[in-house]
């Protein structure tokens, strides 16, 4: 085997360490078909999924497999049987003195045949040789006071407590830290290899057949350990590494509740993948812990909402709270985020800032629960402001043409407020008796707007407003413009719009002495004053409309 340089070896260790800090995700579709199944059918379906065979080399387990699956972050072998510290590499070479390739589920139980089970990494672990030999092919169990072997408390062998052992005089008891690991390993083995024939001489924990494949006392023991020692980050990450090597997984690590549906409290109930939270390390990856969000300025008595996308994986529902001296000024719409919602990758948290004073305010949004090892906090900051006082801008006549289709709209910068976010220029086009109004936004440091949508023969009117924190100043004076020059300030363009059964006046300011004339020349109605938006109901027909300010007749059809 080619030996790696030391720096490559260290890099490999670092990669393993980094991997062990990540959440492990199951491949899409791997467990398709298990939802809705229960008991025997569920176990049989899992059997068909995980029993795919492997091509591992037993002789090269340390070099080709354990070096990926069972290395601690400090570069030592991860031995669940002993507390002995054995470095993986010595002088660049793989090193494992006194260590065995341990079948945690004894090979003698199926007769020792060198089949797929013989090289299955899901139950093969590096182990101290002394501990392994003491374990031998004894069943798992709880040792009474008659201890025959103990590896400094990490594991022990001895006489079983009453009701355990399955007839064997000795049992192997792992450390509490790993009892769940061994239980889930055994659940896997009696599922993946339920088709094997068990040797009657060693039939301590198993029974022949596809279901339940475990003796009652063994089920009780393994479920006890499984519940007391939940799936660890070590297991989830090892499960991923095993999957990379032999392309199958331990379903009782991915979905710990499966054990309850097959042997435990949920026997008789159908399993539903979508209702089962994932396992592994809970982590909020975005936003990062301590990240700051600036909401900006908000007027006292008003509110502003920001949206914060949340990313990561949690293994349970996530609690959300607001903390800090200014927490009364910030709020979130929920106190709990369901794990399914959060894990979808599309959850957006809304944070509302409602200042009660004209000053800076700060609070923390705190996430707890959900399987997080510790709380995750982000900080939000806002600045409360008093309502601004506005002066109206002063608009000026267009001073410059932009080609043949545009003109420059200028204005004076108002004195108040001192800070402006932007300007809004409102332009109305009057053409062929109709009008159209549009708004245009400019930067706060520009007191002009280049209007380039002029239509030949049209007349235009414009006014300007400054904007601060969503509030607009009073309107400036209105200026009119048409090709040929400036008509002057405060002119009053005039148009007529058709409505159902009548007409609507569209104009700037007030027009006086409005007359509606039919096609015979008869004045059918005289209105002393009209303003923009005023309406008049009329019979079906054609009419002309004039005012003192717009003496040129405008033709309009009603009912056509």
Number of helices: 10
Classify the secondary structure makeup into a structural class.
alpha+beta
Mean pLDDT level = 89
Molecular shape:
elongated
Oligomer: single chain
Indicate the radius of gyration in whole angstroms.
40 Å
Specify the helix fraction band: 10-25%
Task: Tell me the major beta sheet.
Answer: 6 strands, antiparallel
Tally of distinct domains:
4
Number of strands: 32
Write the SSE topology:
Layout: H1 6-19, H2 39-50, H3 61-69, E1 89-90, E2 93-94, E3 99-103, E4 124-128, H4 129-135, E5 143-150, E6 155-160, E7 171-174, H5 179-192, H6 216-228, H7 233-246, H8 251-254, H9 258-262, E8 283-286, E9 292-299, E10 304-313, E11 318-323, E12 330-331, E13 336-337, H10 339-343, E14 347-353, E15 360-369, E16 376-385, E17 394-395, E18 407-412, E19 422-431, E20 434-443, E21 448-451, E22 459-468, E23 471-472, E24 479-482, E25 485-489, E26 494-499, E27 502-507, E28 511-518, E29 523-530, E30 535-537, E31 541-546, E32 554-558
Parallel strand pairs: 9-16
Antiparallel strand pairs: 1-2, 3-4, 5-6, 6-7, 8-10, 10-14, 11-13, 11-15, 12-14, 15-16, 17-18, 18-21, 19-20, 19-22, 22-23, 22-24, 24-25, 26-27, 27-30, 28-29, 28-31, 31-32
């Amino acid at each position: 085997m080619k030996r790696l340089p030391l720096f490559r070896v260290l890099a490999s260790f670092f990669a393993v360490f980094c991997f062990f800090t990540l959440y492990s995700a199951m491949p899409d579709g791997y467990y398709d078909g298990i939802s809705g199944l229960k008991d025997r059918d569920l176990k049989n379906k899992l059997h068909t999924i995980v029993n795919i065979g492997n091509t591992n080399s037993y002789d090269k387990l340390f070099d080709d497999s354990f070096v990926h699956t069972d290395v601690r972050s400090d570069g030592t072998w991860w031995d669940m049987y002993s507390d002995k510290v054995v470095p993986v590499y010595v002088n660049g070479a793989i090193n494992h003195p006194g260590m065995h390739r341990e079948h945690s589920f004894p090979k003698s139980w199926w007769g020792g045949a060198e089949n797929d089970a013989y090289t299955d990494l899901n139950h093969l672990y590096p182990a101290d040789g002394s501990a392994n030999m003491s374990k031998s092919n004894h069943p798992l169990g709880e040792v009474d006071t008659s201890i025959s072997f103990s590896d400094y408390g990490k594991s022990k062998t001895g006489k079983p407590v009453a009701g355990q052992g399955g007839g064997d005089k000795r049992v192997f008891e792992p450390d509490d830290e790993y009892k769940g690991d061994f239980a889930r390993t055994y659940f896997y083995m009696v599922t993946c290899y339920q088709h094997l024939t068990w040797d009657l001489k060693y039939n301590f924990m198993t029974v022949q057949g596809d279901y339940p494949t475990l003796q009652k006392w063994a089920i009780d023991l393994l479920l006890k350990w499984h519940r007391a020692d939940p799936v660890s980050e070590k297991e989830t990450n090892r499960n991923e590494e095993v999957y990379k090597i032999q392309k199958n997984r331990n379903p009782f690590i991915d979905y710990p509740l499966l054990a309850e549906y097959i042997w435990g409290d949920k026997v008789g109930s159908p399993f539903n993948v979508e209702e089962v939270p994932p396992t592994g390390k809970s982590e909020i990856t975005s936003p990062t812990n301590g990240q700051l969000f600036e909401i900006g300025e908000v007027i006292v008595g008003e509110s502003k909402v920001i949206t914060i996308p949340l990313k990561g994986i949690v293994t349970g529902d996530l609690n959300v709270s607001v903390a800090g001296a200014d927490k009364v000024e910030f709020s979130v719409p929920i106190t709990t985020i369901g794990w399914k919602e959060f894990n979808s990758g599309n959850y957006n948290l809304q944070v509302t800032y409602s200042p009660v004073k004209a000053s800076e305010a700060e609070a923390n949004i705190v996430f707890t629960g959900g399987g997080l090892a510790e709380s995750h906090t982000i900080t939000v900051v806002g600045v409360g402001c008093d309502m601004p006082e506005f002066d109206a801008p002063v608009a000026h006549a267009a001073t410059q043409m932009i080609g043949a289709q545009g003109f420059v709209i200028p204005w004076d910068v108002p004195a108040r407020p001192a800070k402006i976010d932007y300007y809004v220029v409102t332009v109305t086009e009057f053409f062929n008796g109709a009008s159209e109004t549009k708004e245009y936004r400019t930067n706060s440091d520009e007191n002009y707007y280049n209007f380039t949508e002029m239509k030949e023969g049209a007349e235009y009117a414009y006014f300007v407003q400054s904007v601060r924190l969503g509030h607009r100043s009073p309107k400036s004076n209105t200026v009119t413009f048409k090709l040929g020059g400036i008509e002057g300030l405060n002119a009053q363009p005039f148009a007529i719009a058709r409505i159902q059964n009548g007409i609507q006046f569209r104009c700037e300011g007030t027009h006086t002495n409005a007359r509606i004339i039919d096609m015979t020349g008869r004045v059918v109605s005289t209105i002393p004053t009209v303003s923009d938006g005023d309406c008049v109901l009329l019979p079906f027909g054609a009419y002309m409309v004039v005012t003192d300010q717009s003496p040129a007749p405008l033709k309009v059809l009603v009912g056509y």
